[in-house]
Design a protein that fits this description.
It is built from twelve helices and 15 strands. By secondary structure, the protein is an alpha/beta fold. Strands 6-5-4-7-10 form a five-stranded mixed β-sheet, sandwiched between helices. A five-stranded mixed β-sheet has the order 13-12-11-14-15, sandwiched between helices.
Length: about 400
């Protein structure tokens, strides 16, 4: 080595090893996004030469990351082999916790769901407060059992809960109705029973992730998801980044003081306090708007009641829009689903003049549970960063 020169380490950017790893990841991401592809098509999409593509696929196949899945026929010449990500390369768990229980699903690295289970448990019951980790393990074990897998197969787990983990203390905040989830060691306790690192994420943030991947927010970098259900909250995404705040509480708009609502001081069994925005638009409140117990669909069928709900929602959204100026506001949760497009139109009309910015208003059209969908997407991102790293 010449005097004054420095050795090149294997992880130095620009070295062949790093470039190979970058190409590997690009191809794996392509296969996840597009499904099975031929070697020729992979080369066309990546710009890699045929020899390089062949070497790359051979390397990934030897590593257990891709395999062939049939061939493409009906064209001149020999049939072309199709390559896909090997679903056995890794698995993840996604969970959603609510006041009545815990739902878990297990999926392979491609996102195919292999098993799902639910454990019913009243969050405020005395015997639940010290059994949270065991209940989570029970739900995950049920899903793993359906999939024919064990804890050792998991690469990541993400759990959606009301409230948010304080980054300074590791403790769940803004969720007084989930007393069993407030331990400072909860994340470590869950990792111990599941055998894999666990992320605990705000449920509304995960619903926003779901919208970003496969819902109304796919083409937007600045948007707000407003969750209108038994609890009320928001997820705020600015320049493609989720806004969390100093204590993880960004978006806790259920507590937001508004005209016509008592101030929220302390907690309530519904989670958002005894006042604030939540006391105007939660599913519990909306069901009583017509003066008698009714379903959300029945309330929304009443034009006067629907107009009142739209007015209340628009008042809350106006406060958020005035601060963060999003391109899009997505309405999600059971209240939004019950109101549908009529509610959206009502909110748009009521929002006129309340805030100078005029974002688009959309109602979520995602199928299934958006919290679980977001948890799955987040878990897959983590697992793929591990499994697909060939450096």
């Amino acid at each position: 080595m010449a005097a004054g020169s420095s050795p090149v380490t294997p992880g130095t950017p620009g070295t062949p090893r790093v470039l190979r790893a970058m190409n590997d990841r690009a191809v794996l991401d392509l296969l996840v996004a597009h499904g099975p592809l031929t070697r020729t098509r992979i080369g066309e999409l990546t710009g890699l030469s045929k020899p390089t593509t062949s070497q790359l696929l051979g390397r990934l196949e030897a590593a257990g990351l891709v395999h062939t899945t049939g061939s493409l026929s009906g064209r001149p010449g020999p049939n072309a082999l199709l390559y896909e990500v090997d679903p056995r390369a890794g698995h993840v768990a996604a969970l959603s916790a609510d006041p009545t229980g815990i739902t878990a699903l297990v999926a392979d690295i491609t996102g195919t769901v292999l098993g799902q289970a639910r454990v019913e448990a009243d969050a405020v019951a005395e015997d639940v407060r010290h059994r949270t980790a065991q209940l989570v393990a029970e739900a995950v074990d049920g899903a793993l059992g359906q999939a024919g897998l064990g804890h050792a197969d998991l690469r990541a787990a993400v759990i959606g809960t009301p409230g948010a983990i304080d980054p300074h203390t590791g403790q769940l905040r803004y969720a007084p109705h989930l007393p069993g989830w407030h331990s400072r060691t909860l994340r470590d306790d869950l990792a111990a029973v599941l055998g894999t690192p666990v992320d605990i994420e705000n449920d509304v943030n995960l619903a926003a992730v779901a919208e970003q991947y496969e819902g109304a927010a796919q083409d937007y970098d600045n948007y707000v998801l407003t969750w209108l259900d038994e609890g009320v909250g928001a997820a705020i995404v600015l320049s493609g980044t989720l806004l969390r705040g100093a204590t993880g509480g960004a978006g806790e708009i259920g507590y937001m003081p508004l005209p016509g609502a008592p101030l929220a001081r302390g907690g309530s069994e519904y989670g958002g306090g005894a006042g604030g925005f939540e006391s105007l638009v939660s599913a519990y409140v909306v069901r009583e708007l017509t003066g008698e117990k009714a379903t959300l669909a029945e309330v929304m069928a009443d034009d006067v009641a629907l107009r009142e709900v739209a007015r209340r929602i628009a008042t809350g959204i106006a406060a958020v829009v005035a601060v963060v100026d999003p391109e899009l506001v997505v309405l999600s949760g059971s209240v939004a689903q019950a109101g549908g497009d009529k509610l959206r139109l009502g909110v748009e009309e009521e929002l006129t003049g309340l805030a100078l910015p005029r974002p688009l208003i959309r109602v979520s059209e995602l199928d299934g549970d958006p919290i679980l969908t977001g948890a799955l997407r987040s878990a897959l991102t983590q697992a793929r960063d591990q499994v697909f790293d060939t450096a």
